[in-house]
Specification:
Length: 269
């Protein structure tokens, strides 16, 4: 048995030349890619900048962190959270009728197919592009961020809602139908009780995503804390950057803790 294994090992394909050539090509591509990396606007290297950012987080600007005006971190964080929350609520409400229309087990196949194509098209466009589009329509501000978060939420939440609807226990609907229930009664007593935990859990999960996306949207002028953050970083004001990041980290941790507790409770009934 050992001799057979040894003979099979000795007879294995010798690909070391191919592997060596492939390694040389990969290393060459990495070196060539590194030559395209440029730094401008500062004489500091990346490591020094990273150290400054960490130093700013541990030594934040307390005046900005505790400033209760509309220029302070608490107000900007509240605005960001409101954009994410309202965007999630609006998107989740719009997604409910879209999901019922697009679900293949409730709607004709042509209608469901068209609905899926529309949802796929919505999900294809990044949130920053939607933000730039809505800023042209409504002007810079939190309302543009709200519209962006709502549309982005519709794309993802509707898809999750459709999957929940298509996994319905149809035996309950059949029993209600046999009992002579109307369509509304079947929806009220047979469909919604099965779907509400999944719907609520999906909406909470989307709120977590929107909270992070709303921070990025501020960079393009769609409200929130993103714009002050990028301005502080571009000006190398690391203490202000640290104050904004520290507040954002605390907010995300609190929201993550609360949402996880709610999702677990919904999942376990």
């Amino acid at each position: 048995m050992d001799n057979k294994i040894k003979k099979a090992y000795d007879a294995r394909p010798k690909n070391w030349v191919f592997e060596l050539v492939l390694a040389v090509i990969i290393i060459g591509l990495m070196v060539w890619s590194a030559t395209a990396v440029e730094t401008s606007g500062t004489n500091q290297n990346g490591g020094k900048i990273a150290i400054n950012i960490l130093s700013g987080i541990f030594h934040p600007d307390t005046k900005l962190l505790l400033n209760l005006t509309n220029q302070g971190v608490p107000y900007l964080l509240l605005e960001t959270m409101c954009i994410a929350f309202m965007g999630t609520v609006v998107g989740a409400i719009i997604s409910i009728p879209l999901a019922f229309i697009t679900a293949s087990n409730l709607s004709p196949k042509p209608v469901a197919f068209i609905g899926r194509m529309v949802i796929m098209a919505i999900r294809t466009v990044p949130s920053l592009v939607y933000g730039l589009m809505f800023i042209r329509v409504t002007g810079p501000g939190a309302f543009a961020g709200l519209l962006t978060m709502s549309l982005c939420s519709v794309g993802m939440v509707t898809k999750m809602y459709i999957e929940a609807i298509e996994d319905l226990d149809t035996r309950i609907l059949e029993s209600l139908d046999a009992a002579g229930c109307t369509t509304w009664q079947k929806i009220r007593y047979g469909i919604l009780p099965q779907l509400m935990p999944n719907f609520a859990s999906t909406a909470i999960y989307r709120f977590d995503i929107n909270l992070r996306d709303a921070t990025v949207l501020g960079i393009v002028g769609a409200g929130g804390i993103g714009a002050p953050l990028i301005f502080a970083m571009n000006s190398y004001r690391w203490n202000e950057t640290g104050a904004i990041l520290a507040g954002l980290i605390v907010l995300v941790l609190i929201i993550e803790f609360i949402s996880t507790k709610i999702r677990v409770k919904l999942a376990r009934g």
